[in-house]
Structures are given as structure tokens and as C-alpha cells.
Design brief:
The chain is an alpha/beta fold and 474 residues long. The chain has 15 helices and 14 strands. The protein is globular. The two termini are 12 Å apart. One of its GO terms (cellular component) is mitochondrion.
Length: 474
């Protein structure tokens, strides 16, 4: 493949990176990796292990496995590594007294926060919050964040119901202990087909991506609407795609009008990631927000996978230019910390209505602060935009060169958050395997999709390696 060069965004962020991938063993994992997996199996589940990693030797965009194989990582630990392996700024921060004290004196934040917790939360979350969001509610993971967002929505509704004395009634106190109404009212959260929001009980009830995530587990009987199934290329199917999005909004309206119990909130991903990297237009999300407002349903945007820069904006929903902020925005992954942003102080529940021992982790707030520092000082959002445009354009050319192999390319103008469909799930899985054995760690999603999740420090020379391998192995 011939690649037309564009200027690099400054010098390489990791001058000590390998020049390219290098695979030494006939399988990945190789002998040492297999031995490590067997050792792990004696103490921990290995059902989903791909291969063990040597994190001391991994650097920048490259990870090194237990056998010394060097892979260009465009999957980045399921989209969680923001600014490269062994980033010098983060390593230096980790050696500071600030980080050491936070790590070795981890507080029960709800009861005993550090005296400077306001500053830590400001610098570690609020300073780069989505537009309009004023407050943060830290949690432990993306699933936790979504679970808590649902609770906040339900408690907001419950706590603001008309009450005789402005307090909980004896009946409410008694019945909630028996899991019955009125103390435990029946309330729902609306989600979308093919969405993924986690594997805890509430979040799992809104996850609709794969049966394996849900099978065998009880679930709340909460409603789901269709997420738009757009046709590509978008410019060719403008009329059809608008009709499809309107159909989905009409379905949301119908559910809100007819569901058997009140709906407290609706959750949506800006791009449905685990479900196949499914997109919708900015106009769809404007209509969705307006519909929810009409019915007094809180709007939760799940930015667990899309947040912190991968789409070329700090937060993917910023591309929408909504007239008012979403009610809540959940985050995790590249953020390293996890939690919920919100802007209405009334969403804070009464003390102990939501509470756990940790309520977040000051060390992760410190880490997030330095990640944001790297993004700003190295202008990584612009890097993501430039490299993403280059990758998207190059994939369009490869699709023409390999008819039927690279289908429905999506993510134009969304940085490096790019995906395409293979001919089948078997073809996708085989391609992922070939790429791994040729030094590219890449991932799939949905039925037959390949998704790119490179780090924010992924540059054009990395993209050229990736694209050459795709051309060779597709």
C-alpha cells in the first residue's frame, strides 16, 4: 500500500519506542506466556486472558508480552490507556509524595476525606468536566458509575415526591425493608438495543449487546428502544437514515407514553461500542434530549468508552452541541478514575441513601489530573483529529482496493474512534488473529466489526504501520 504522508504533530511523544512490531514466537502467547497463564490459573480465573504482558518493557504505543513479542497496541486495554505505556509524566507523578500519601493512606472518602479533597476533585475532574457539569460523584468502575447514575435518578424522583411532612413516611420505611411499594417503588431506566452499560444488576438490565453478558442472571423488566441502524456511506443514504432515526425517536416517545411504570432516566452511549460501534447523527441526540425533557425523564450519557479524547473532543457528546447539558455524564476507562458528572445539586441524595466505603480513590484523581495535563500540553486532541482523518481516508482507499472486505466504515470526523465490518464474525476473528501474529493488537465488537481504540499518542507513523498490515492481511 502506498501511503501519502502528512506532517507529524511535532516529534514523537516516546523517542524510546520500538521502530515497529516484532513477533518471535510461532504463537501468542508463546511458551513463557502459556506458562504464566498456567501459573495464574492456580489462583485466578483465566477464561478471558489473551496473553500476559511485560509492563516494565512496554512503552508508548507498544506492549511487550511475556515472550518478548512487541505489538503495536491499537486496542489499548479495551480503550483504557490514554497517554501510552510508562508515560514519563505519569511515572514521575507516581513517585511524588502527593501520590504516595494518597496510595498508602486511602480514606473512606464519604466519612473522612482529606482536608484538600476539594482541590483534588477540582483538579482531577471538574477542571476538564463536560461543558455545564459542576459536580462529580466518584465511584470505582464504569459499571458502578452507571449504577449510581440510575440510583441518583430514582432517588431524585423519590425524594422530590410530595410528602405530608417533607420526610419519609412510616409506611415507606417499613415497606422498603420488604422490597415492596411505596418504600421500594417500581421505576424503570430506558436504554437502547445493542447498548452496553456494565455487568452489575442495574447496569446489566440496561446492557443489550451480547447474550453472554446477561444469560443466567435475573434482570429488571426495563424497556429498550431501537438505536438507529444507519446505512453507509452516510452521504448516500441521507433520506433513509433520517427516516430510521425518526422511527427510533417515535419508539422512545411511545415507550415513555405507555410503559407500565414511571421511567426515571434514559441512558445512551454517544457511540455504541461493545454493540458494534454504532453511530447516530447529532440531530438524533437533539431530538432524544427534547423528547426526554418533555416527559421529565433524566438524560444520562454514558461516556465510559468514548470520554477523554478518543473522538477528537474531550467528551464525545460535545460534538452534538446540545442546547443544555445532559443531566448526568458517566466516565471511566481512559479517565482511570470513574464516576458521574452532574450539574443539578438536587441530584445529591440524602446522606447514606447512596454510600460505600471508598466513594472513589484520591490516587486516581491525581492520576486523572496528570493525564489531562498531558492531553493539554501535548495538544493530543488535535493529534487525534489529524491522525484520525488520515486513518479514515486511508481505510476508504483500502475498501476500494479490497471489495467486500472492509464494509461500512464509520467514525468520520470522530478522531481515531473508527470501525468497519468484516464479511462475517468468523472472518473478523480470523483477521484479528492474523493481525496479532503480525504484531498488531486489535479488537472486535458487535457481530463482525473491527474497532480501533489507539491511545491519544498514536501518530501517523504508527498509523502507517497499522494500515500496511491491514492491506497485507485483510
Amino acid at each position: 500500500m502506498t501511503v501519502t504522508s502528512v506532517a507529524n504533530n511535532g516529534s514523537a511523544y516516546f523517542p524510546n519506542e520500538p521502530k515497529g512490531p516484532s513477533v518471535k514466537t510461532s504463537t501468542i502467547p508463546g511458551p513463557k506466556g502459556k506458562a504464566a497463564i498456567e501459573e495464574i490459573s492456580q489462583v485466578h480465573d483465566i477464561g478471558a486472558v489473551k496473553f500476559p504482558v511485560d509492563y516494565e518493557k512496554s512503552v508508548g504505543n507498544y506492549l511487550v508480552d511475556a515472550d518478548g513479542n512487541v505489538l503495536l497496541d491499537v486496542y489499548s486495554q479495551i480503550a483504557t490507556i490514554p497517554v501510552g505505556y510508562n508515560n514519563p509524566t505519569l511515572l514521575e507523578a507516581a513517585k511524588s509524595d502527593e501520590a504516595a500519601i494518597a496510595m498508602m493512606n486511602r480514606p473512606a472518602l464519604g466519612n473522612y476525606p482529606p482536608k484538600n479533597w476539594a482541590t483534588m476533585a477540582q483538579e482531577g475532574a471538574i477542571d476538564f468536566a463536560p461543558k455545564g457539569q459542576k459536580y462529580v460523584y466518584y465511584q470505582m468502575s464504569g459499571s458502578d458509575a452507571n449504577e449510581v447514575a440510575y440510583k441518583l435518578a430514582m432517588l431524585y424522583r423519590f425524594n422530590n415526591l410530595p410528602r405530608v411532612n417533607g420526610d419519609f413516611t412510616e409506611e415507606e420505611k417499613t415497606t422498603c425493608m420488604n422490597n415492596s411499594s411505596p418504600g421500594s417503588p417500581e421505576v424503570a431506566v430506558l436504554s437502547f438495543r445493542h447498548g452496553f452499560h456494565g455487568r452489575l444488576f442495574g447496569s446489566l438490565s440496561t446492557t443489550r449487546s451480547k447474550p453472554v453478558h446477561k444469560i443466567g442472571m435475573p434482570a429488571f423488566h426495563w424497556p429498550q428502544a431501537h438505536f438507529p441502524a444507519l446505512k453507509y456511506p452516510l452521504e448516500k443514504y441521507t433520506t433513509e437514515n433520517q427516516a430510521e432515526e425518526d422511527r427510533c425517536i417515535e419508539e422512545v416517545e411511545h415507550i415513555l407514553n405507555t410503559h407500565h411504570c414511571p421511567i426515571a432516566a434514559c441512558i445512551v452511549e454517544p457511540i455504541q461500542s461493545e454493540g458494534g460501534d454504532n453511530h447516530a447523527s447529532n440531530e438524533f441526540f437533539h431530538k432524544l434530549q427534547a423528547t426526554l425533557k418533555k416527559h421529565n425523564v433524566l438524560f444520562i450519557v454514558d461516556e465510559v468508552q468514548t470520554g477523554m479524547g478518543s473522538t477528537g473532543a474531550m467528551w464525545a457528546h460535545e460534538h452534538w452541541n446540545l442546547p443544555t447539558p445532559p443531566d448526568m455524564v458517566t466516565f471511566s476507562k481512559k479517565f482511570q478514575a470513574a464516576g458521574v458528572y452532574y450539574h443539578d445539586k438536587n441530584l445529591r441524595p440524602h446522606a447514606y441513601q447512596h454510600f460505600n466505603t471508598w466513594m472513589g480513590d484520591p490516587l486516581r484523581a491525581i492520576q486523572a489530573k496528570y493525564i489531562a495535563k498531558e492531553i493539554r500540553e501535548k495538544d493530543l486532541l488535535q493529534n487525534v483529529k489529524t491522525v484520525g482523518d488520515f486513518v479514515y481516508t486511508s481505510l476508504e482507499k483500502l475498501a476500494e482496493k479490497h471489495p467486500g472486505k472492509i464494509n461500512n466504515i464509520r467514525g468520520k470526523g470522530k478522531g481515531t474512534f473508527i470501525a468497519w465490518d468484516c464479511e462475517s464474525s468468523a472472518a473478523r476473528d480470523a483477521f484479528v488473529g492474523r493481525m496479532k501474529m503480525n504484531g498488531i493488537n486489535i479488537g472486535g465488537c458487535g457481530v463482525a466489526a473491527i474497532r480501533l481504540r489507539p491511545m491519544l499518542v498514536f501518530q501517523q507513523h504508527h498509523a502507517e504501520i497499522l494500515l500496511s498490515k491491514i492491506d497485507e492481511l485483510i
